[in-house]
Specification:
Elements: H1 5-20, E1 29-30, E2 38-40, E3 43-45, E4 47-51, H2 64-73, E5 78-82, E6 113-117, E7 124-126, H3 133-148, E8 152-158, H4 164-167, H5 198-212, E9 219-224, H6 234-251, E10 256-263, E11 277-281, H7 287-292, E12 298-304, H8 311-322, E13 328-332, H9 357-371, E14 379-380, E15 394-400, E16 404-410, E17 418-421, E18 424-431, E19 438-446, E20 449-452, E21 461-468
Parallel strand pairs: 4-13, 5-8, 8-9, 9-10, 10-11, 11-12, 12-13
Antiparallel strand pairs: 1-2, 2-3, 6-7, 14-15, 15-16, 16-21, 17-20, 18-19, 18-21
Helix pairs in contact: 5-6, 8-9
Length: 471
């Protein structure tokens, strides 16, 4: 069949008109009523996912259309990806079928190949003074496809070099480019004064990416993945944040900027004023939320994994962060590979983490639970528990006092918490986080004071939702 060139031309023109224009939908932002949460498409929003290992764009073998369909189908709305300034060799971190480790001829990044051979990863060296048009078309197509499916893209602009093996294959390494820059050690790359000429490369890349993606509503810019490794300085991070903000001000657009703070938890001091999302890795229990809730910004756990392969481990972490007042959760899902973009790869036992279709279903139930609440009016609160829980049961909870309550209970088989509630008529229901089913739905006509509510039987965890009749 001959192609319809007129139709193709119209399509291309439409695509570029969208790319070059301002966002038709307002970019995802902090919610004006409660900035601990997001607003997107005029709706209060939390971001939850179990996503691939950040190579969706830089790995040409990865079919991101299939991947995004799987996220949308499971009710998930976030993906995180790297720009290509960082790439991994096969076998890094003991990850099989690693999407961040494309085969030799399938690595695409912001800079084009030169005519000079000698790239340590195979093929010709890179030219850091020019742009790879094919890369930016792929990046924009990925973001556009995600936008259509309601998926937010957290784009990590940079990543430190954990070991020499990653730095050895970076396009920014002086041995891999033709521009006479980057002749330094891996721990000097992300600094203001020791970068060997790379600072201007970083600045140019930030400006280019921000300008190319100005027309999309579903972007959050992450300054740098895990900057607490590899010599990344805070001064450099603040410089990049300011540059993103200044470039967008020129363009008349504003996207959120996120900063990765620490593994587990840390108290944030002297935050950059343009950063709106503060992310932690492996943040369980979510102490980081409690430590930093006073910032009135989003707190998230945007990478977890490396704790075995049980779905329950990562389901638990998602519920913990969301029911503690966080608004973003991302599990590293190793069932997504370049040959299994629908997430059905049976990874080996040596894999450092997990991920599965069942887990994605379960995280979709967490999304449903949150959306069944008017969560933007809630805050972390345990004061409505009149007494301690029995045994080793732990609880994470939110409330809008006198109107709605939500709690996630971990460990136990059946619980009877005593709650202190104002007078009123309440609807009580319990969700099984594994099946997503609400059970033991009850109506409570309460005179005020303490009341015992009894859960159904459960194996590992259960969630409670209490809503006052507003009539």
């Amino acid at each position: 069949m001959k192609p319809n060139f007129q139709l193709c031309l119209v399509t291309v023109i439409a695509i570029f008109a969208h790319m070059d224009g301002k966002c038709q939908t307002k970019p995802i932002a902090l919610h004006p009523v409660n900035p601990h949460y997001f607003i997107y498409n005029e709706k209060p929003t939390v971001l939850i996912t179990s996503g691939e290992h950040y190579g969706a764009v830089l790995n040409l073998d990865f079919d991101y259309q299939k991947y995004l369909v799987e996220l949308q189908t499971k009710g998930l709305n976030l993906t995180r990806t790297f720009t290509g300034a960082y790439v991994e060799p096969a076998g890094a971190f003991n990850i099989t079928e690693n999407t961040l480790a494309p085969s030799t001829d399938k690595f695409i990044c912001p800079w084009p190949r030169s005519q000079e051979p000698g790239y340590a990863g195979g093929g010709n060296k890179f030219d850091l003074e020019h742009w790879n048009d094919a890369y930016f078309l792929r990046l924009k197509d990925f973001v556009a496809a995600a936008e259509k499916k309601g998926v937010i893209v957290e784009l990590a602009l940079f990543c430190p070099f954990y070991e020499k093996i990653q730095w050895n294959i970076s396009p920014m390494n002086g041995s891999n480019n033709i521009n006479g820059v980057g002749n330094i050690g891996k721990d000097s790359v992300y600094t203001l004064d020791k970068s060997g000429g790379l600072l201007m490369v970083h600045e140019a890349l930030v400006r280019k990416v921000v300008r190319e993606l100005k027309g999309y509503s579903n972007i959050i810019y992450e300054i740098c993945n895990e900057p607490y490794f590899g010599g990344v300085t805070m001064e450099w991070q603040h410089h990049i944040a300011s540059l993103i903000s200044a470039t967008e001000k020129e363009l008349g657009i504003k996207h959120l900027i996120s900063q990765n703070i620490a593994n587990d938890s840390a108290k944030i001091t002297n935050p950059h004023p343009d950063v709106s999302v503060f992310n932690f890795h492996y943040a369980s229990p979510p102490t980081a939320v409690k430590q930093n809730y006073g910032l009135k910004k989003v707190i998230g756990n945007n990478e977890t994994g490396f704790r075995g392969q049980k779905d329950s481990t990562y389901r638990k972490e998602g519920w913990q962060i969301l029911l503690s007042g966080g608004a973003l959760y991302n599990n590293l899902d190793y069932s997504f590979t370049a040959s299994h973009e629908d997430g059905n790869y049976a990874y080996p036992e040596k894999q450092p983490g997990g991920g599965s279709a069942l887990l994605r279903n379960q995280l979709g139930f967490l999304m449903k639970f949150m959306n069944d609440l008017d969560f933007v009016r809630m805050k972390p609160d345990k004061s409505f528990f009149a007494g301690p829980l029995s045994g080793q049961t732990r609880v994470y909870s939110l409330s809008e006092t006198g109107k709605q309550y939500a709690a996630y209970f971990l460990r136990g088989q059946q619980i009877n918490p005593t709650l202190r509630l104002p007078a009123g008529k309440y609807s009580i229901s319990w969700m099984d986080p594994v099946t997503g089913a609400y059970s033991k739905k009850e109506t409570l006509q309460h005179k005020g004071g303490d009341v015992v509510v009894a859960s159904p039987q459960f194996d590992f965890d259960i969630a409670l939702r209490i809503v006052k009749d507003r009539k």
